[in-house]
Design brief:
The complex is a heterodimer of chains A (about 500) and B (about 375). Chain A is mainly alpha-helical and about 500 residues long. Chain A has helices at about 5-40, 45-80, 80-115, 120-150, 170-175, 180-210, 215-250, 250-260, 280-285, 295-300, 315-335, 340-350, 370-400, 405-435, 445-450, 455-485, and strands at about 155-160, 165, 265, 270-275, 275-280, 295, 305, 310, 440, 445. In chain A, strand 9 and strand 10 (about 445) form a beta hairpin. In chain B, the strands form two sheets. Chain B has a two-stranded antiparallel ribbon with strand order 1-2. Chain B has a two-stranded antiparallel sheet with strand order 3-4. With about 375 residues, chain B is mainly alpha-helical. Classes of the chains: A mainly alpha (about 500), B mainly alpha (about 375).
Amino acid sequence: MDVIIWSRIQFAMTAAYHWLFVQLTLGLALVMAVMETIWLVKKDEFWKKTAQFWMKLFAINFAVGIATGIILEFEFGTNWSNYSWFVGDMFGAPLAIEGILAFFMEATFFAVMFFGWDKVSPKFHLASTWLTGIGATISAYWILVANGWMQNPVGTTFNPETVRSEMASAAAFWEVITNPVAVSKFFHAVTSGWVTGGIFVVGVSAWYLLHDRQSQFARKSLLIGAIVGLVGSGAVMLSGDSSGVHAAEFQPMKLAAAEGLQDGGNGAAFTIVPGIKVPKMLSILATHDPDGFVPGINDILRGYTDSEGNVVPSVAEKMAMGREALVALSIYRTTDDPSEKAEARYALEENVQYMGYGHLEKPEDVVPPVGVVFWAFRLMIGLGMLIALVLLLSLIAVWKDKLGAWKWLLWAAIICIPLAYICGQAGWIVAEVGRQPWTIQGLLPVNVAISSLSAAAVKTTFFIFLAVFALFLAIEIRIMIRAIRKGPEVEPEKS
Amino acid sequence: MSYEFLQNYWWCLIALLGGLLVALMFVQGANLHLGNRVLSDVQKRMVLNSTGRKWELTFTTLVTFGGAFFASFPLFYSTSFGGAYWVWVLLLLSFVFQAVAYEFQNKKGNLLGVKGFRIALICNGILAPFLVGTAVGTFFTGSDFTVNKVAITDPLSPVISTWGNCWHGLEALGQFHAVLLGCTLMFLTCILGALYILNNIDDTQIHSQVRRTVKLCILPFLLFFLCWLVILLVGVGYAVDEAGVVSLEKYKYLHNFLQMPAVLILFLVGVVLVLCGIYQGAFTKSRSGIWPAGIGTVLVVMAVFFIAGFNGTAYYPSCTDLQSSLTIRNSSSSQFTLQVMFWVSLLIPFVVAYIAYAWHQMDRKKITQDEISGTPHKY
């Protein structure tokens, strides 16, 4: 395998691993903040001890999240050198805002939250708990602005003087930070974190109930977890719907791959699993119109006319225009003849939107791994719905006082904890594998985004990181399980 | 705001962040005391909890320093990180282990045991300042890279910044001048760590141990620092003219000090403050040496960044192809982006204020043996 593949595998592994910890951080932060607020409102020590227990688990998880976040930041530069230069100007402002607004907020108030129980006033402590979660959420927004731009590069223009994408006006910056892909991704990612946090609390609480330990703590925690998780599930569905519409609009190949749709058309059916289809459902999901046009993989390869009458060129035509853009850029950068320079600039501007296609070898390169994206999409939706159902039933069980009787539900809640992680990973596979071969949609394919490294160097660091990640995960799970087994010490244990 | 002003402004902020990062590496220096055989386990736990309440600040400053470089001078980020691969990976690994070592160290079931994680913290205490110092040292010695933006049009070799050797950054370990700065930083952070412990922990035995550390580190620190400084001042530097042409200039960095007297004053004030802090820690009963030494460190590092980048100097020189050298002018983000970031950066005083307030509240009580045993959450 070459350096491109190893760089992709290494980055994919780091991003996927990092997300394992982020999704719980986002959800558990909200659960803890709600519990501590109840403590302050009710002045009931029970809620303080309850919040402290979940905080202990939060801290174990948070440490690995921080440790892996910095690896991603470094890997942008170490493994994706061209990409760093190409996007540096666009990433600048969101990163500055993330660093100044979010990073220090998270770091400072996490320390106050963790160590400050007897050092600061209860109100200051509560504010710190909320600010830790808010800091993590703000951080998520700005990093998803950057990610959203990679999926739908709005608000920037290619500058041949600097050979990169640049923002040029306040309107362009506004376009970047309100990019619809970024906004829906933010809500989808953050609220899926709430679902994970919710089901984690419900599952752990279910374990205590099954073992007849800490029953008051478990019931009340389960209630809060189920509410947070259900609110998250509703928001995930809504933001997922808009993600589908945006994929149809800005990344039709991703949608076609997720659907395994070879040949599209009007009134396209949604495939639940191969052989079972719901008529017109894909058109409804993608365009909110039962007869809307959804292009398939072959349509995109050959070129098509969309429902608004716009002619979309074939990939071969885009590649030809992209190559013209690259030749024009090369001439523009090397010639000293003013008229030749002006001509090259004109040719570049005419074809620049397809410049990335000029780097492709053949039209089929724009097709992502269909099988992986197709099944990841189904796994994400299926597991997401299952978890939402378990959360809903948990709430009903609390309401009807059936927690003791519905033991199967308690087991289901425990099983749903790992399923929530699989669901989150599947979602990112759809989002990131689905946009291959692009690091930046249409502008920069992965083979041009890399650093000048040997495959052996990247392979070595891949295995180093793999070993480190495996070690950390094993330790994290062991410590987490021990902490859960030890219990919250809210109520005296039965002998 | 002119483009030049914004570029200079962001170089100043990079310098400030670099200074804060080095000063905050007292965390790394202090953690070296986890290997002190005279200290009992409880005392080591006090040290661990003392740095454990600050490590995230250092870590976040490192992340922000990297992010600020990425945002304001992306060509440096893509060239250095993609080129000096192994230096950054090693630095990264040392910080990654540090980040989990606090939380995992004293938890049962952590697989590596207390000792394993303490070794990780000590390795980070040595490696992090050494590697950061050596990497910054290459700002003056030059590195083996070329930058060719037209390369992106070449499908066979599209990478803009390419490294000239297969060592990918490890060759800096063979550059005597760069290594001197690495060693200087290592001993400086060791001193800062000792001064921090002196200030933050109430324990007479720990105090006597850290004062001894300061005394032991003075000589090597001064030796490495002065050697680095003398070689810097009498050596060749990388000058860049108004047309952007880079050339070698004898005594360039000495010229920079003399032609920018404000930077020279900043540097000298910083050095004096560091020496005052060291004197307080080593030879008086004062426990406040961390303040002058910390502030002095920030000033010295800022001055070092200023002479590296200002007054027509290439801050990241290429010894392979002089004209590929990176300057503040040719490696920055666009004027618009720097301007947006400028407005955002005006929030920094607000951020500093809340950090200061939060830590003032947290540090009102010094760390003692009783405090450690009575704290509900501890490392």
